Amino acid sequence: MNFIDTMASVELVLAANQVPLLVGETGIGKTSLAARVAVEHDWELVTIDGNLLKEGEIGGLPTVESVTHTDGHGNTHSVKTTVYAVHHTLEHVAQAVDKGRQVLLFIDEINRAEHAVQQELMNLILNREINGFSLSDQVRIIAAMNPEDSFDYQTIDMDPAQQNRFVWLYMNADYMQWIDWAIGAGIEEKVIEFISSYPEYLNQRHEDDIDATPRSFERVSGLYTIYKNQEGSAYSREVFMNVIRGNVGKLIAEAFVNFVESDQEPLITFDDVLAAVQKPGAIMSMAEQVKGESPTRLYVAAKNMLHRLNRNSNAEEVHHFIKFLTLYPGDLRVAVMKDLRNTYERVYAYAIEDDLFVDTFFEAQK
Predict the structure, then answer these.
(1) In the prediction, which pLDDT does 256 show?
(2) Are strands 103-108 and 44-49 parallel, antiparallel or unpaired?
(3) 99: burial class by Cβ within 10 Å (0-12, 13-18, 19+)?
(4) Could you give the CA distance from residue 341 to residue 323 in angstroms, rounded to a whole number?
(5) Strand, helix or coil for residue 66
Protein backbone atom coordinates (compact mmCIF):
# COMPACT_ATOMS: atom_id res chain seq x y z
CA MET A 1 0.00 0.00 0.00
CA ASN A 2 1.07 3.58 -0.51
CA PHE A 3 1.52 6.08 2.34
CA ILE A 4 -2.04 7.46 2.34
CA ASP A 5 -3.72 4.05 2.15
CA THR A 6 -1.43 2.69 4.86
CA MET A 7 -2.21 5.65 7.12
CA ALA A 8 -5.96 5.16 6.64
CA SER A 9 -5.52 1.46 7.45
CA VAL A 10 -3.60 2.32 10.62
CA GLU A 11 -6.38 4.68 11.70
CA LEU A 12 -8.97 1.93 11.25
CA VAL A 13 -6.93 -0.66 13.13
CA LEU A 14 -6.28 1.70 16.05
CA ALA A 15 -9.97 2.63 16.20
CA ALA A 16 -10.71 -1.08 16.70
CA ASN A 17 -8.21 -1.20 19.61
CA GLN A 18 -5.94 -3.52 17.66
CA VAL A 19 -2.21 -3.29 16.95
CA PRO A 20 -1.07 -2.49 13.39
CA LEU A 21 2.30 -3.83 12.26
CA LEU A 22 3.89 -1.75 9.50
CA VAL A 23 6.10 -3.81 7.19
CA GLY A 24 8.38 -1.96 4.80
CA GLU A 25 11.96 -1.39 3.72
CA THR A 26 14.13 0.97 5.73
CA GLY A 27 13.69 4.65 4.89
CA ILE A 28 10.28 4.17 3.29
CA GLY A 29 8.43 6.36 5.80
CA LYS A 30 7.16 4.12 8.62
CA THR A 31 8.41 6.50 11.31
CA SER A 32 7.05 9.51 9.42
CA LEU A 33 3.66 7.82 9.20
CA ALA A 34 3.54 7.24 12.96
CA ALA A 35 4.56 10.86 13.56
CA ARG A 36 1.83 12.10 11.24
CA VAL A 37 -0.83 9.99 12.97
CA ALA A 38 0.26 11.46 16.30
CA VAL A 39 0.10 15.01 14.96
CA GLU A 40 -3.33 14.47 13.39
CA HIS A 41 -4.77 13.40 16.75
CA ASP A 42 -2.60 15.59 19.01
CA TRP A 43 -1.18 12.49 20.68
CA GLU A 44 2.17 12.33 22.45
CA LEU A 45 4.53 10.27 20.28
CA VAL A 46 6.96 8.01 22.15
CA THR A 47 9.35 5.82 20.16
CA ILE A 48 11.17 2.63 21.14
CA ASP A 49 13.91 1.39 18.78
CA GLY A 50 13.95 -2.36 19.22
CA ASN A 51 17.33 -2.87 17.56
CA LEU A 52 19.05 -0.60 20.11
CA LEU A 53 17.79 -2.41 23.22
CA LYS A 54 19.70 -5.01 25.21
CA GLU A 55 18.22 -7.86 27.22
CA GLY A 56 16.60 -6.63 30.43
CA GLU A 57 16.73 -2.98 29.42
CA ILE A 58 13.07 -2.41 28.56
CA GLY A 59 11.88 -4.75 31.30
CA GLY A 60 14.05 -3.06 33.89
CA LEU A 61 16.75 -4.53 36.10
CA PRO A 62 15.52 -6.28 39.25
CA THR A 63 16.15 -4.99 42.75
CA VAL A 64 15.22 -6.61 46.06
CA GLU A 65 13.14 -4.68 48.59
CA SER A 66 11.76 -5.58 52.01
CA VAL A 67 8.00 -5.55 52.49
CA THR A 68 5.80 -6.39 55.45
CA HIS A 69 3.44 -9.37 55.07
CA THR A 70 0.63 -10.37 57.46
CA ASP A 71 -0.15 -14.07 57.66
CA GLY A 72 -3.51 -15.73 58.39
CA HIS A 73 -2.92 -15.55 62.14
CA GLY A 74 -2.34 -11.81 62.14
CA ASN A 75 1.40 -12.09 62.56
CA THR A 76 3.60 -9.76 60.53
CA HIS A 77 6.70 -10.91 58.73
CA SER A 78 9.35 -9.06 56.79
CA VAL A 79 9.87 -10.68 53.40
CA LYS A 80 12.01 -9.91 50.40
CA THR A 81 10.40 -9.16 47.04
CA THR A 82 11.76 -8.45 43.59
CA VAL A 83 10.93 -5.05 42.10
CA TYR A 84 11.84 -4.05 38.54
CA ALA A 85 13.02 -0.60 37.54
CA VAL A 86 10.95 1.21 34.91
CA HIS A 87 12.68 2.06 31.60
CA HIS A 88 12.89 5.81 31.02
CA THR A 89 10.79 5.52 27.86
CA LEU A 90 7.95 3.85 29.74
CA GLU A 91 8.29 6.47 32.46
CA HIS A 92 7.84 9.09 29.72
CA VAL A 93 4.63 7.31 28.70
CA ALA A 94 3.35 7.25 32.29
CA GLN A 95 4.14 10.93 32.84
CA ALA A 96 2.35 11.93 29.64
CA VAL A 97 -0.76 9.99 30.69
CA ASP A 98 -0.62 11.58 34.16
CA LYS A 99 -0.73 14.99 32.43
CA GLY A 100 -3.91 14.02 30.62
CA ARG A 101 -2.25 13.29 27.29
CA GLN A 102 -3.07 10.37 25.03
CA VAL A 103 0.03 8.53 23.84
CA LEU A 104 1.04 6.80 20.62
CA LEU A 105 3.78 4.29 21.40
CA PHE A 106 5.73 3.48 18.24
CA ILE A 107 7.88 0.34 18.52
CA ASP A 108 10.24 0.23 15.56
CA GLU A 109 12.57 -2.47 14.21
CA ILE A 110 10.83 -5.11 16.30
CA ASN A 111 12.25 -7.98 14.26
CA ARG A 112 15.82 -6.67 14.52
CA ALA A 113 15.85 -6.86 18.31
CA GLU A 114 17.65 -9.66 20.13
CA HIS A 115 15.38 -12.61 20.77
CA ALA A 116 15.11 -11.92 24.52
CA VAL A 117 14.35 -8.25 23.86
CA GLN A 118 11.74 -9.22 21.27
CA GLN A 119 9.97 -11.35 23.87
CA GLU A 120 9.89 -8.40 26.27
CA LEU A 121 8.49 -6.11 23.58
CA MET A 122 5.89 -8.71 22.62
CA ASN A 123 4.74 -8.87 26.22
CA LEU A 124 4.37 -5.08 26.23
CA ILE A 125 2.53 -5.04 22.89
CA LEU A 126 0.25 -8.02 23.33
CA ASN A 127 -0.38 -8.02 27.09
CA ARG A 128 0.23 -4.28 27.67
CA GLU A 129 2.29 -5.15 30.74
CA ILE A 130 5.90 -5.87 31.55
CA ASN A 131 7.33 -6.74 34.97
CA GLY A 132 4.60 -4.95 36.89
CA PHE A 133 4.36 -1.90 34.62
CA SER A 134 0.99 -1.67 32.87
CA LEU A 135 0.09 0.54 29.93
CA SER A 136 -2.88 2.84 30.40
CA ASP A 137 -5.93 2.59 28.16
CA GLN A 138 -4.85 6.03 26.89
CA VAL A 139 -1.89 4.43 25.11
CA ARG A 140 -2.13 3.14 21.54
CA ILE A 141 0.59 1.06 19.91
CA ILE A 142 1.99 0.89 16.39
CA ALA A 143 4.73 -1.64 15.67
CA ALA A 144 7.03 -1.66 12.65
CA MET A 145 9.50 -4.05 11.10
CA ASN A 146 11.59 -4.70 8.02
CA PRO A 147 10.54 -7.46 5.63
CA GLU A 148 11.49 -10.87 6.98
CA ASP A 149 12.55 -12.08 3.53
CA SER A 150 15.05 -9.27 2.99
CA PHE A 151 18.69 -10.30 2.74
CA ASP A 152 19.82 -6.81 3.77
CA TYR A 153 18.79 -7.15 7.41
CA GLN A 154 19.55 -9.55 10.20
CA THR A 155 16.06 -10.29 11.48
CA ILE A 156 14.48 -12.48 14.13
CA ASP A 157 11.39 -14.30 12.90
CA MET A 158 8.25 -14.19 15.01
CA ASP A 159 6.45 -17.44 15.74
CA PRO A 160 2.98 -17.98 14.23
CA ALA A 161 1.21 -17.24 17.52
CA GLN A 162 2.90 -13.83 17.75
CA GLN A 163 2.28 -13.05 14.09
CA ASN A 164 -1.42 -13.74 14.53
CA ARG A 165 -1.78 -11.01 17.15
CA PHE A 166 -1.03 -8.17 14.72
CA VAL A 167 -2.78 -6.60 11.77
CA TRP A 168 -0.07 -6.73 9.09
CA LEU A 169 0.11 -3.68 6.81
CA TYR A 170 2.61 -3.79 3.94
CA MET A 171 3.91 -0.36 2.95
CA ASN A 172 5.43 0.53 -0.43
CA ALA A 173 6.99 3.71 -1.80
CA ASP A 174 4.76 5.80 -4.08
CA TYR A 175 6.68 8.50 -5.90
CA MET A 176 3.62 10.65 -6.63
CA GLN A 177 2.68 10.80 -2.96
CA TRP A 178 6.32 11.43 -2.06
CA ILE A 179 6.29 14.40 -4.44
CA ASP A 180 3.13 15.72 -2.76
CA TRP A 181 4.84 15.45 0.61
CA ALA A 182 8.13 16.90 -0.65
CA ILE A 183 6.48 20.05 -2.01
CA GLY A 184 4.87 20.78 1.35
CA ALA A 185 8.01 19.85 3.29
CA GLY A 186 10.24 22.30 1.44
CA ILE A 187 12.37 19.72 -0.35
CA GLU A 188 14.61 21.32 -2.98
CA GLU A 189 12.83 21.78 -6.31
CA LYS A 190 15.70 20.13 -8.21
CA VAL A 191 15.38 17.01 -6.06
CA ILE A 192 11.64 16.88 -6.73
CA GLU A 193 12.23 17.38 -10.46
CA PHE A 194 14.84 14.60 -10.42
CA ILE A 195 12.43 12.12 -8.84
CA SER A 196 9.64 13.22 -11.17
CA SER A 197 11.95 12.46 -14.10
CA TYR A 198 13.37 9.22 -12.65
CA PRO A 199 10.73 7.83 -10.26
CA GLU A 200 12.41 4.43 -10.17
CA TYR A 201 15.30 5.98 -8.21
CA LEU A 202 13.15 6.88 -5.19
CA ASN A 203 13.42 3.44 -3.65
CA GLN A 204 16.11 1.40 -5.39
CA ARG A 205 18.08 -1.50 -3.98
CA HIS A 206 21.76 -1.91 -4.89
CA GLU A 207 23.47 -5.23 -4.31
CA ASP A 208 26.98 -3.78 -3.99
CA ASP A 209 26.31 -0.15 -3.11
CA ILE A 210 24.25 2.18 -0.92
CA ASP A 211 20.48 1.77 -1.31
CA ALA A 212 18.40 4.79 -2.30
CA THR A 213 15.29 5.41 -0.18
CA PRO A 214 12.83 8.28 0.32
CA ARG A 215 14.76 9.20 3.47
CA SER A 216 17.98 9.36 1.41
CA PHE A 217 16.56 12.04 -0.87
CA GLU A 218 15.48 14.12 2.12
CA ARG A 219 19.15 14.22 3.14
CA VAL A 220 20.21 14.88 -0.47
CA SER A 221 17.95 17.94 -0.46
CA GLY A 222 19.68 19.37 2.60
CA LEU A 223 23.12 18.78 1.09
CA TYR A 224 22.15 20.34 -2.23
CA THR A 225 20.81 23.45 -0.48
CA ILE A 226 24.19 24.04 1.17
CA TYR A 227 26.14 23.20 -2.00
CA LYS A 228 24.24 25.53 -4.31
CA ASN A 229 24.26 28.44 -1.83
CA GLN A 230 27.92 28.19 -0.84
CA GLU A 231 30.07 31.28 -1.11
CA GLY A 232 33.21 30.70 -3.13
CA SER A 233 34.18 27.09 -3.71
CA ALA A 234 34.42 25.57 -0.25
CA TYR A 235 32.85 22.35 -1.54
CA SER A 236 34.04 21.10 -4.91
CA ARG A 237 31.99 19.09 -7.37
CA GLU A 238 33.95 16.00 -6.34
CA VAL A 239 33.12 16.54 -2.67
CA PHE A 240 29.46 17.06 -3.52
CA MET A 241 29.45 13.92 -5.66
CA ASN A 242 30.97 11.88 -2.83
CA VAL A 243 28.41 12.91 -0.22
CA ILE A 244 25.52 12.29 -2.61
CA ARG A 245 27.00 8.88 -3.40
CA GLY A 246 27.08 8.19 0.33
CA ASN A 247 23.32 8.64 0.39
CA VAL A 248 22.05 7.00 -2.81
CA GLY A 249 24.93 5.06 -4.37
CA LYS A 250 27.31 5.84 -7.23
CA LEU A 251 24.95 5.37 -10.18
CA ILE A 252 22.17 7.61 -8.87
CA ALA A 253 24.66 10.15 -7.51
CA GLU A 254 26.17 10.62 -10.97
CA ALA A 255 22.71 10.92 -12.50
CA PHE A 256 21.64 13.50 -9.91
CA VAL A 257 24.75 15.68 -10.19
CA ASN A 258 24.53 15.65 -13.98
CA PHE A 259 20.83 16.50 -13.71
CA VAL A 260 21.34 19.58 -11.52
CA GLU A 261 24.16 20.75 -13.80
CA SER A 262 22.16 20.30 -16.99
CA ASP A 263 20.49 23.07 -18.94
CA GLN A 264 17.07 21.53 -18.51
CA GLU A 265 14.27 24.07 -18.53
CA PRO A 266 12.87 24.80 -15.06
CA LEU A 267 9.34 23.79 -14.20
CA ILE A 268 6.52 26.11 -15.21
CA THR A 269 5.64 28.35 -12.25
CA PHE A 270 2.59 30.38 -11.34
CA ASP A 271 4.63 33.50 -12.03
CA ASP A 272 4.91 32.23 -15.62
CA VAL A 273 1.13 31.89 -15.73
CA LEU A 274 0.62 35.42 -14.41
CA ALA A 275 3.13 36.76 -16.95
CA ALA A 276 1.32 34.97 -19.77
CA VAL A 277 -1.93 36.70 -18.82
CA GLN A 278 -0.41 39.98 -20.02
CA LYS A 279 0.70 38.58 -23.39
CA PRO A 280 -1.24 38.35 -26.67
CA GLY A 281 -3.33 35.22 -26.49
CA ALA A 282 -3.05 35.30 -22.69
CA ILE A 283 -2.64 31.88 -21.07
CA MET A 284 -3.33 30.13 -24.37
CA SER A 285 0.09 31.41 -25.47
CA MET A 286 1.57 28.72 -23.18
CA ALA A 287 0.04 25.85 -25.17
CA GLU A 288 3.26 24.88 -26.98
CA GLN A 289 5.28 25.03 -23.77
CA VAL A 290 2.80 22.75 -22.00
CA LYS A 291 2.74 20.38 -24.97
CA GLY A 292 6.51 19.95 -24.75
CA GLU A 293 6.45 18.92 -21.08
CA SER A 294 6.15 15.39 -19.71
CA PRO A 295 3.00 14.51 -17.73
CA THR A 296 5.04 14.07 -14.56
CA ARG A 297 6.67 17.51 -14.81
CA LEU A 298 3.27 19.06 -15.52
CA TYR A 299 1.86 17.36 -12.44
CA VAL A 300 4.67 18.64 -10.23
CA ALA A 301 4.26 22.15 -11.69
CA ALA A 302 0.53 22.10 -10.90
CA LYS A 303 1.19 20.86 -7.36
CA ASN A 304 3.69 23.66 -6.77
CA MET A 305 1.11 26.20 -7.95
CA LEU A 306 -1.64 24.72 -5.79
CA HIS A 307 0.62 24.76 -2.75
CA ARG A 308 1.31 28.46 -3.34
CA LEU A 309 -2.35 29.33 -4.02
CA ASN A 310 -3.52 27.48 -0.93
CA ARG A 311 -1.35 29.74 1.23
CA ASN A 312 -2.50 32.99 -0.34
CA SER A 313 -4.79 33.54 -3.33
CA ASN A 314 -7.90 35.23 -4.62
CA ALA A 315 -10.67 34.30 -7.06
CA GLU A 316 -8.90 35.91 -10.02
CA GLU A 317 -5.65 34.01 -9.45
CA VAL A 318 -7.50 30.72 -9.05
CA HIS A 319 -9.33 31.43 -12.32
CA HIS A 320 -5.97 31.94 -14.08
CA PHE A 321 -4.80 28.59 -12.70
CA ILE A 322 -7.96 26.84 -13.92
CA LYS A 323 -7.48 28.43 -17.34
CA PHE A 324 -3.91 27.11 -17.36
CA LEU A 325 -5.21 23.62 -16.50
CA THR A 326 -7.34 23.57 -19.64
CA LEU A 327 -4.06 23.17 -21.56
CA TYR A 328 -3.35 19.86 -19.79
CA PRO A 329 -4.17 16.45 -21.30
CA GLY A 330 -7.63 15.29 -20.18
CA ASP A 331 -6.65 12.52 -17.73
CA LEU A 332 -3.97 14.63 -16.10
CA ARG A 333 -6.33 17.61 -15.86
CA VAL A 334 -8.92 15.50 -14.05
CA ALA A 335 -6.28 14.10 -11.67
CA VAL A 336 -5.12 17.60 -10.71
CA MET A 337 -8.70 18.83 -10.30
CA LYS A 338 -9.57 15.91 -8.03
CA ASP A 339 -6.45 16.61 -6.00
CA LEU A 340 -7.46 20.28 -5.80
CA ARG A 341 -10.89 19.29 -4.50
CA ASN A 342 -9.63 16.77 -1.94
CA THR A 343 -6.53 18.52 -0.62
CA TYR A 344 -6.53 22.28 -1.20
CA GLU A 345 -9.51 23.64 0.72
CA ARG A 346 -8.80 27.34 0.19
CA VAL A 347 -8.33 26.97 -3.57
CA TYR A 348 -11.38 24.74 -3.89
CA ALA A 349 -13.57 27.35 -2.18
CA TYR A 350 -12.79 29.71 -5.08
CA ALA A 351 -12.75 27.02 -7.76
CA ILE A 352 -16.21 25.64 -7.03
CA GLU A 353 -17.64 29.11 -7.66
CA ASP A 354 -15.84 29.36 -11.00
CA ASP A 355 -17.94 28.26 -13.99
CA LEU A 356 -14.81 27.34 -15.95
CA PHE A 357 -13.73 24.87 -13.26
CA VAL A 358 -17.12 23.16 -13.15
CA ASP A 359 -17.51 23.05 -16.93
CA THR A 360 -13.95 21.82 -17.50
CA PHE A 361 -14.26 19.11 -14.86
CA PHE A 362 -17.49 17.65 -16.21
CA GLU A 363 -16.36 17.99 -19.82
CA ALA A 364 -13.26 15.93 -19.07
CA GLN A 365 -15.41 13.25 -17.43
CA LYS A 366 -17.40 12.63 -20.63
Answers:
(1) 93
(2) parallel
(3) exposed
(4) 16
(5) strand
The three-point CA angle 317-321-326 to 5° equals 145
Report residues of the chain scoring pLDDT below 70.
56-74, 77, 79-87, 148-159, 263, 364-366
At a CB cut-off of 8 Å and minimum separation 6, what does 27 contact?
203, 211, 213, 214, 215, 216
Question: Going by C-beta distance under 8 Å and a sequence separation of 6 or more, which residues neighbour residue 260?
Answer: 190, 194, 224, 228
Which residues lie below 8 Å from residue 365, measured CB to CB, with a gap of 6+? 334
DSSP-based three-state secondary structure for 174: coil
**Rounded to whole angstroms, how far apart are CA atoms 193 and 183?**
11
Strands (DSSP E) found in 33-113 = 44-49, 62-70, 76-84, 103-108
Alpha-carbon distance 77 to 71, whole Å? 8
Q: CA–CA separation, 83 vs 36, rounded Å?
A: 36
Q: Which amino acid is at 123?
A: N
Q: What is the pLDDT of residue 243?
A: 96
Q: Which domains does the chain have, with CATH numbers?
A: 3-64+80-170 (3.40.50.300), 175-261 (no CATH), 270-365 (no CATH)
The answer to whether 52 touches 66, Cβ cutoff 8 Å, is no
pLDDT for 150 equals 52
CB–CB of 217/205 below 8 Å? Answer: no
8 A C-beta contact, residue 144 and residue 108: yes
Torsion of CA 119, 121, 123, 129, to 10 degrees: 150
DSSP string, 263-293: -PPPPP-HHHHHHHHTSTTGGGGGHHHHHTS
pLDDT at 300: 87
Q: Are 7 and 22 in contact (CB under 8 A)?
A: no
* Rounded Cα distance, 306 and 329, in Å: 18
Q: What is the pLDDT of residue 83?
A: 47
The closest alpha carbon to 222, from 191, 193, 179, belongs to 191
Answering whether pTM is above 0.85, one says: no
For residue 183, the model assigns a pLDDT of 86
What integer pLDDT is reported at residue 85 of this predicted model? 44
